[in-house]
Structures are given as structure tokens and as C-alpha cells.
Amino acid sequence: MSNSITTFVLQGLLLITGLVIATDESLSNTETKDINDQKFRTIDTGIQFPYEERLNVRPLPHNHLLSSFEFQMNSEPFFPSDSSSNFDKYDHYTIFPKAIEPLLRRTDVRQLHLRFTRGFWDSEEWGRLPHDGFKSGGSGVELWALIEGNSKKDAYKKWKSLANSLSGSFCASINFIDLSKTNYPVFSFNPQERENEGIPLFNSTNNLYLMHASLANEPICTENLTPLLKLLPSKGKSGISSLLDGHKLFDSIWHNMAIDITTQCVNDDSYSNSGECFYEMEANVDVVAHIPSILARNKNPIPKPLGGDDLHCDLSKPYDAYQCFPSPETSEISFSLSDIFGKNISGSNDLSFTHSRICASISENWLATIKVDDGLFGTDDNCFDLTENRNYDIYMESGSSNKVARNDDVPIYVSRSLTGYGQDHGGLRTVFSNPTLEPVRLSYYESLPWFMRIYLSTLKMEVTSDIYQNLTFNDIVESQYYMPAIDRKRSTQLEFIMTIPANCTISLTYEFDKALLHFTEYPPDANHGFEIESLIITILESAPYQLRTATLLLYLSTPDFSMPYNVIIISSTIMGLIFGTLYNLITKRMVTMDEAEKILATRSIKYKVMMLKQRILSKLGF
Amino acid sequence: MEFTSVTICAICATIRLLGLWAFPSIGNLLDKSVEFSTPVTSYRSLKEALVLGMGSSNTITFNNGYYDGGVVHHPPLLLQALQGIPIAYHDYLFILFDCLILLQFVKLTEQVKRQNKMFINIPTWLPALVYAINPLSLMSCLSKSSVIFTNWCIINAVVQAINGNIPITAMFISLSGYLSLYPILLIFPLINLINLNSSNPQKVNNTIRLILYTIYYCGFLIFISYKINGNNWNFLRANYMVLLNFEIVTPNLGIWWYFFIEMFTEFIPFFKGTFGLFLLSFVIPLAIRFCAQPFCASITILGWLILTKPYPVLGDYGFWFSFLAYFVPIAGYMRYKVFSMLLFIHGIMLSPIFYHLWIGSGSGNSNFFYAVSLVNALAIGTILSDLIWAMLRHEYDGETPNYEIKLAQV
């Protein structure tokens, strides 16, 4: 097999060199701007790799725009039975990132999921999350992986190694994932599928371990986007990934980057160790931008008050030169993707079986056209294939932008909040609201840090609907898993499988104590509080869906950070004072004052000198 | 005025029931205050264990027993015993235990009066009445802090020691050690108490018997707990290592918490050792120095333990203050009665206020509450030194007090 790969690649290299020579001539009289980009492209007939990229743009109500970038690639096939020390073959990565594959092999990862998410997805206005929520994470960084290992300890070691490596590759604090942040989900993240889908075990004596951790306070920034772009074969230089730019992407209401890697084996009989396997990687970037504010910023990078002529006054109210009620947001809108992302799409990708594709999910009152160099073209299905190496742009306009292609409604709304006041006790309140006419069966996954000492004996359930007044917690919960936290070693893990009845709102509340930490355990800005990771809800039946609540900000009481020396000194003084007093009391002799004076007199230096003098004098015979 | 034990019990129960009736939520409130509850004695962690523990019908249960987590720190036998009593009756159970402690106080007074002429003038009802109307023990009872069971064991051990009943003394002192570890150190003054009126060969015999019985009972309790806990030793970590290691840093009235929050990580183990030694330091010296007054020595050692233990609560203080009634005959010797009492009241009054300023309103910081815990330590220290001074004076004067004579120590 390795031989065939080698010949395949050599052929490919020959082809590319041939083509470079050919294209150099043909390009000399056309545009010269993109010559460097085009040098290493195979145009029509070149070798193709298992790579695909797609962009889907979808206008959302109130002039928001969701852009979903999807990239898919497969690794070169490999045989699990080949050990890495087998020198007969050399590892060969075509389009699959070289940074990732050795890492997966070293840590025996069968599935890897990494999420970088920030912002607020307004599900009441915008409907379901892209990809039904399975490609988005909670605010911050979220990592979960399925790791093969011979024991839990072994798997954790690999997990730690994986986290440290990813931390380096993605410039994120993933290395802060430790024992106290790692959980082993039981009901969530579809562990049932693990058995059904037959995720391969490369060594049949091993087991698969699912581990999950999230870092809710991690800021997401361009330094996380650049490594993601570097994983793509186009490196963000051509195709739709050339749109992605940190400055614009993170200037949005909600953004999400996801990487999912799974191991696929061609031979079903994976346990026999003879099957051919490959890694499949999907990278997603989703971003929701508010179009008018981006257009305004493009026009006016430094915010300035608008001139009188530019004001849009509400004509139904009084207005003159001195007063103006701003009109509601305009529903007439036109923009191009280059306005939103600050760049044009430079060319297509020619590595893959299919061309880069851009689709606009729009209703009739929207118009989407592709701008190729200077010409505008439209299609029936509003999908555009990027076939040539030109500059592309998508132009969209609408006269009534609030009428958008309706997204399906979310099957359930879940929100969680902190209750109580003070920094020693608090409560958590989770509200489930099922707007549909069918009961929703879901799994509930909550992980809380150890410094929230929760008391589930205080768990209370409230039901708002009259019909379900007699509903108890036992009625809605099917199975539960509760792993209490251990200080500094383990976080609380709480999982339920529960059913929320149709058209019903249920709230669950329970109380917790806040622990005090050692002064070195507080982060640099201790009074900012601690972010508590999202609650993860997965709908199990009919239409699978996953959603996460907003993260919470938990305030802990803080000691005075300037006090260490003072406390050591003052406490020790008090202890010394008491100790000294008691020690004197129980070791000394009780005498009357007169006796004491006599005894003390014999102890004074004056007395001793006098005695010495007397003795010397008596020795001398005086 | 004379009070019989029945009257005092009635007073005790009435006050507590009135408290429950007038303020139904006071238990919860007190249970959440740092003065009356600590992670190792709080009722809410006890309740968590009872509701989610083995054999409960709750939907959510601990997957791996009580102690696989950081919430439950009560020993398995206590949990097992309370499991049998419905939670609705717990309020009454705690009141009942307060009454049992009272009865033991009455019994104790009768015995010490018989044993030692020094106490002859103390009214039999006085210590018990102090316990019954003392607001600290009253509120501790309402907060349902598990410290009440330890206190009951301690007073039983003292009563039985004066009786000279070695096996029962050993049983109660082991039980109190089993419940909250440190009271086991009271065995040293109790040895003297048992030996008070015995001849020398008998003394050795008694001492050996008491120690062996205690070891036997401790081993038995630990073994039974091991069996009850599903053949798992993890209750030892949850109950005793937490105390020895001061694993849960929460604000309380003791001297440990702020010291270890502010301590540099590298030195934490060293200073935990130091604080542990500090706690041990005066137990044996006091027992030896006052081997002729073992009952008073027990009281001072109890005070010393309250001063130095990692998680003190006001329930401990209330219990100890009732014992101070036995010092009434020699109160004349005390030098700073007013000062130490005012210091103590100052601490008690300011602690909820300063705690609220720090935690609740955020207008103060942790140093406020730290200052209160220092004042408390100082108050206990002053009271202790006064008690010891009074005992020394009593020792010097013998039976006839001489308040005129001025004494000094060299």
C-alpha cells in the first residue's frame, strides 16, 4: 500500500510541475495580480483530494446575517496494525493537517471535538442553531474526545497530553484542563452511538473513554482563528476561507469555530486489526453579524455623530431641525460579503472533487447575485460554484429584510440563572420551557466547579401550567447520574434524562455554598468572578438538537490579597501570647509578693555584682 | 430558689420549642451562619447525606456512597442512626439531646459536690440552668448542629469518670472522639479523674484499663463504620483527615482559616503541622500540672481545644460556658473577669456584623471578620489564663480562701 501511495504522490508532483510550466505561459497576458496564488494550482485535470468547502449565508430577522463556513477533509488511509515505529513506510499527509494527525495517533484519539464560541444566539428570534447545535459550543472553549486506553488513568494521561498539544496549536489555555475540570459524561454526547456506530478499537483489549471539559472564561480571538485556517489546505489564501479575517469575524454578535475529527474504518471488522482507516475532519466557522452596524462602521470607522441630513426621522412623530425621533431600523438593505468580511473571495479551491460552493438561504423578497470580476450573475437555487480563479463577491439585497427564510423553531428553551445574594451561599435556577405540543425527552449535562458545594437535597421543582400541577420531579426524570465534587480534584457532574411535558414550563432550583480559596488560587482579577460553564441540553427524540445555556458569573468572597505577612505576624503573636501566658502560669512557682521580691532581688545584676565583689574581697582577705 | 431537674428540662424544652414556633425558619438561618455551623457539623450537609444517601428513596442519590465527594463529613454510625428518624422529627431530637445534656449536668453537679468540698456551695441546678438559658446553646440547638452529640458524649464521659465506671467512660470518650476527633484528648484528664481517690497500684491498673477499653471501643467503632460504609475506608478521610489537614477553608471563629488562606503554598504543610502541635501542646501539661484537680483540668483542656481546633462553633462555647459555673467558688481569685467577658461579648456581637459587611454587603473586607476571630481567641485565652490562675490560687490557699494575700509567680 505504501508503495502505491508513493507512486501516486510522485505522479501528482510531476503533474503539478508540468502544469506550473503550462500556466505560466497562459497567464502572462492575463491578470498578473494573482500569479503567486495560482502558481501551485492544478486547474482542471489535476489530482483531486477528499476535500470540500461550502459557505451558506442566511439572513436572519432584524438585519442579521448568519454565515456558515464548512470545510471537510479526509486523511490518507492508514492501517491501525502498523506501528508508528514501522520504518518501511513514511507518514504522508496530503491535505490533512500535519499538526493534527501525529497527535491523534500518539494520543489514540478516535473522536475529537473542539469548540471556540462567544456571543449570544437569540434562539427566540433566530430559531435553531446552525447544524442543530451539534457544531456549536458553550461560551469559551469546549473540548471533548473519545480516547482509547487500557485504563481510565491511561486515557486521562493521553487526554492531558492531547489538551497540552491542542493548547499549543490553538494558542488557547486548553492546557488548564486538569482533573478538576475533566468529566466523563454518561448520558450526554451520545455514548449510545459509540456502540452502534462501531467506533473502531485499534487494540481489542482497550476501552473507549469519553472525556469532556470546558473553559468558560476563555476569550476567543484572532490568535485562535489563524491556527484553524492553517489547518485548511487552502490556508485561508483561496476559496471561501479567504473571506475569514479576524478583524471582522470577531466583531460580531455570535461566532463559533468548531473542529470535529472522527476515525472511520473502511473494513467493518475493525477488531481484527486489518481494516483500513482514515480520519475525517470537519471544520466549521459560523458567525452572526448585524449588517447595518458593520456597514456604518465601514463608512465611518471612527464613530461620529451623524449630520442632520443623514438622520432618518420617524415621520409619524414631530420632527424639525432640532428634534428627531429615529425611525425604526430600515428594512431596505443591500450589501456584499466583502462589506461584511472586508475581503473578496480570491478564487476557488482546485484540490477537491467539487468546487467551492456558496449558497444563500433566502426567501423570495431577497436577491442574491454573484459578482465575478465586474459582472453580476444570479442562479435559480441561489447557489454559486466558484469554478475559476477570479475574484468573487456575493451581493445581496432586499426591500423587506425582515421577511427571511423561516428557520425551524427550537423544540425547547432552557435558561439558567444564579439566585440569592451574598458571597457565601447561592442557588441555581434552571427553567425549561417546552412551547411545542409534544413532550420533549432530553438529556441534561451539568458540570460545576468544586468551589460550588451543591446541596441536591434542596432541589425543588415548580410547574407553571395548571394541568401539570401534580407533576413531581420523579415523574419527569427517567435516570440520573450524580458525581459530587471533591475539593481541588473533581468537579460536580450532574446528568439527567428527563421529559418535559408538552406546552409546559418547569423550573428546577437548588442551593449551594461558595467555598473560599487559598489566596494563590484566585485569578489575577479575583473580583471579576468565576465563569460557570454552560448547561448542555441534548434533545434525544424525533429531531435531535443540542443547546447550551449562557455561562454564569459566580462571585466568590475574596481575602485581602495584601495581608499574607500581616496575618502570619498577627496570628502568630496572638498564639504566642496565649501560649506564653499559659506556659508561665503552669510552670512557675506561686509565692507571696514579699518572697517574690526577695527572690527577684537575688536575680538582679546589681545583686550578682555585689555578691561577686564580696566573694573577691573575701578571697583577698579584706 | 430551687430548681429540680424536671423544671430545668421543662424550661429548656419550652424555650427551644418557643423559638421553633415563633421563628420557624430560624434553624435554616442559623445553619447558614458561620458562627453556628461549619462544613463538618452543619445540618444541611447531614441532611444532604440523609436525603441522598444509602437506602433513601430520593430520585437523586450518591453513586458511590456518602463519602465520595466533598459535602458529607459526618461519621457513618451517626448517619445510620439518624436515617431511622424522619427528618420532620429532627428538631425534637435535638431538643431531646439538649435535655439529656442538662440531666447529665445535674448529675455531674451532685457528684462533684459529693467528691470535692470545694464545690459544696454550688446550687445543684446552676450549671444545668446556665446551659438551658444560655443563648449560645439555645441557638446551637435550633441550628441543629451535630456538635450536640459530641457534647452529650463528653459530659457522659466526665460523669462516668467521676463515678469511676471505666468501661462506660471509655465508651463515651471513644464516641466523642469518633464523632469529632479532638475530644478524645480529654482522656488524659479523665485518667486523673478516675484515679483521684485510688491507691497507687490501683491507679496503674485503672489507667491501663481505661486506655485499653478506649482503644477497643475506637477500633470497634471504626470497624463497624467500615462495614456499614460498604467495606470502604474513605469515611476516615472525610471525617478525620479533613480536620487534621484543614481541607475546607471556610471562615469561622477559629484561628486557622485566615492563616491558611493567606499562607504561601509551600509552607502550608509545615504550618498545618505547627497548628496541630499547638493544639496538642497544652493537653498533657495541663493534665499533669493539675492532676490533683482533674475535674477543673478537664474544663480548661476543653477550653483549650475550643480555642485551637480548626472548626469551632458557638455550640462548643455554650457548652463550655456551662462548665464555667463550677468555677463560681473560686471566682474571687479571677483577675480579669469583666475584661474577658466584655472581650468575648464584643467578639460575639461584632462577628455577624463584620461577616455581613464582608460577605453580604461587600462594604468591608475579610480583615474585619479576621479581627473578630482574633478577639475571640484573645477572649478565650484570657478566660483560660484566669481559670488557671484561680486554680493555682486555690491550690495555694487550700480550703480557706485568702483574698488579702498578694501572690506572684517566679
From TrEMBL, chain A:
GO biological process, one term: attachment of GPI anchor to protein
A cellular component term, taken from the record's GO annotations: GPI-anchor transamidase complex
Keyword terms, alphabetized: Membrane, Signal, Transmembrane, Transmembrane helix
Keyword flag Transmembrane: yes
Signal peptide interval: 1-22
TM region(s), chain numbering: 563-586
Keyword Transmembrane helix belongs to the record: yes
Protein name, per record: Similar to Saccharomyces cerevisiae YHR188C GPI16 Transmembrane protein subunit of the glycosylphosphatidylinositol transamidase complex that adds GPIs to newly synthesized proteins
UniProt source species: Maudiozyma saulgeensis
From TrEMBL, chain B:
Statement: the UniProt record of this protein carries the keyword Ribosomal protein: no
Main location: endoplasmic reticulum
Entry's Gene Ontology BP terms: attachment of GPI anchor to protein; GPI anchor biosynthetic process
Keywords for the protein's UniProt record, in alphabetical order: Endoplasmic reticulum, GPI-anchor biosynthesis, Membrane, Transmembrane, Transmembrane helix
Record field: transmembrane: 87-106, 118-136, 142-159, 171-191, 211-228, 240-261, 267-288, 341-358, 370-392
Protein's UniProt keywords contain Manganese: no
A GO CC annotation given for this chain: GPI-anchor transamidase complex
Compartmental location: Endoplasmic reticulum membrane
Signal peptide: none
InterPro entries per record: PIG-U
Membrane topology qualifier: Multi-pass membrane protein
Pathway(s) where this gene product acts: Glycolipid biosynthesis; glycosylphosphatidylinositol-anchor biosynthesis
Similarity comment: Belongs to the PIGU family.
Protein name: Similar to Saccharomyces cerevisiae YLR459W GAB1 GPI transamidase subunit, involved in attachment of glycosylphosphatidylinositol (GPI) anchors to proteins
Species this protein is from: Maudiozyma saulgeensis
